Amino acid sequence: MNTINEYLSLAEFEAIIFGKSKVAISDVVLNRVNESFNFLKEFSGNKVIYGVNTGFGPMAQYRIKESDQIQLQYNLIRSHSSGTGKPLNAECAKAAILARLNTLSLGNSGVHSSVIHLMAELINRNITPLIFEHGGVGASGDLVQLSHLALVLIGEGEVFYKGDRRPTAEVFEIEGLKPIQVEIREGLALINGTSVMTGIGVVNVHYAKKLLDWSLKASCAINELVQAYDDHFSAELNQTKRHKGQQEVAERMRQNLSDSTLIRKREDHLYSGENTEEIFKEKVQEYYSLRCVPQILGPVLETINNVASILEDEFNSANDNPIIDVKNKHVYHGGNFHGDYISLEMDKLKIVITKLTMLAERQLNYLLNSKINEILPPFVNLGTLGFNFGMQGVQFVATSTTAENQMLSNPMYVHSIPNNNDNQDIVSMGTNAAVITSKVIENSFEVLAIELITIVQAIDYLKQKDQISSTTKKWYDDIRNIIPEFKEDQVMYPFVQKVKDYLINS
Questions:
Q1: Closest C-alpha among 427, 247, 228, 256 to residue 342
Q2: Which of 66, 244, 314, 479 is 20 to 30 A distant from 221 in Cα terms?
């Protein structure tokens, strides 16, 4: 059980989304929310406050009479429930609920406590709203996507429940849940914020960390295959560059390879003996995709960590408008809903994940090209050359998918298009950035799956399974349980999918 209190850490957030931990609401939060609600109700009586007694966006110049103010909130939710495209998966939708819940719990939004309670119930009962990928420009927050969440909270729209897409009203009846009743500004408070892009961002970071770990493991295994020298990931070499990410990657490589009997020391070979040859039989230095792993994955690691920090700040921030300030007895109008922080970080994340994918594709090509590696048959073909194909067919998939990632890495952050009668004249496109990043991440898992299948085939060809490190041996065995060693050609797509699922879920 994780209690929403003063601050929700990223680790606690992930435990709720991926660890199936339940959510509880502290008395501190409930008191804070109730105080904010009561203050706004009293304060708004004879004042002009956006979204309470005014229209929205460019229609804010129109006063809304008191008798229509509640209906205004329902109109806002229903009219903006207009998303299209694919539905967000359950993890992303659940993360969006949690991000919004935590933001509203800060007491800067003036919502009724019933909103907090119902969102917690949705999380705890694994009821996720139908939220579509398309619709958010990330400026007045995730207006369209969050409207689909709000639609569920008022008992309308659709949800995913026990694997099925069903009307909200049906599921609420089954679960004994009651919709919220809009009191003052629950409509605007629910949809005006960055919670969908932030929730997707948290999910993206979770899987980006897994990708980094797998890329590191693959890189270590290939260094084992070629019996590389250890100095390129040594502490001595990497400490001469001050980047923490590079140093950490190198350290993780050393830990991974600590019990490998294949990795060599330069002093035992190239620094000993006469060394009088005109042409050296031993390779002096490996290709960049093997030798520069700390320098390539170091920035990836640092970027993932930085993105995670920004996300944690965002879901612990009030990303609403206006901001209800109980302490100073004031309501402030501004732009905390603007998603630039998330948009920029998602662009950064997809760029480094694409670079990680490019590294995997180059390492794969190294293994498949016998003229480069000089130790493996073409395409790591364990059958008859010319008659069998080995990994030739799946290389096309890896190359194609890497190319797609390269295209998708163009930034959304600078693709603002004015809309909303030019009220929203510069926007973040943060949700688009987050959704595209999730696609880049999924693609990267596919490329890594193909690379790892190739590596285990290479290990078997070289008869090295008793010499590889214990870390490599663990995942070697796991993948071999999915796809046994093969010489004859076979349909590969089911195996690639199974290995991809293994990488994602392990």
A1: 427
A2: 244
Amino acid occupying residue 443: N
- Distance, in Å, from the CA atom of 51 to the CA atom of 58, rounded to the nearest integer, reads 12
Question: Which part of the chain is CATH 1.20.200.10?
Answer: 203-316+337-505
Domain covering 203-316+337-505 assigned CATH 1.20.200.10 in the classification = yes
Q: What is the distance between the alpha carbons of residues 136 and 143, in angstroms, rounded to a whole number?
A: 6
What pLDDT, in 10s, does the model give residues 73-112?
A: 999 899 999 999 999 999 999 999 999 999 999 999 999 9
Using DSSP's 3-state secondary structure scheme, residue 129 falls into strand
* Domain 2-193 listed as CATH 1.10.275.10: yes
CA distances from 196 to 162, 199, 339 (A): 22, 5, 10
| pLDDT tens figures, 17-66 | 999 899 999 999 999 999 999 999 888 888 787 778 787 777 877 787 87
By the 8 A CB rule, do 220 and 301 touch? no
Q: Of these residues, 7, 50, 229, 341, which one is catalytic?
A: 50
Cα distances from 116 to residues 43, 101, 109, 112, 299, in angstroms, run 22, 6, 11, 8, 39
The token pair that represents 32 in the structure block = 């804070």
Cα gap 153→127, rounded to integer Å: 11
Closest among 143, 135, 129 to 193, alpha carbons compared: 143
pLDDT digits 0-9 by tens, 197-247: 999 999 999 999 999 999 999 999 999 999 999 999 999 999 999 999 999
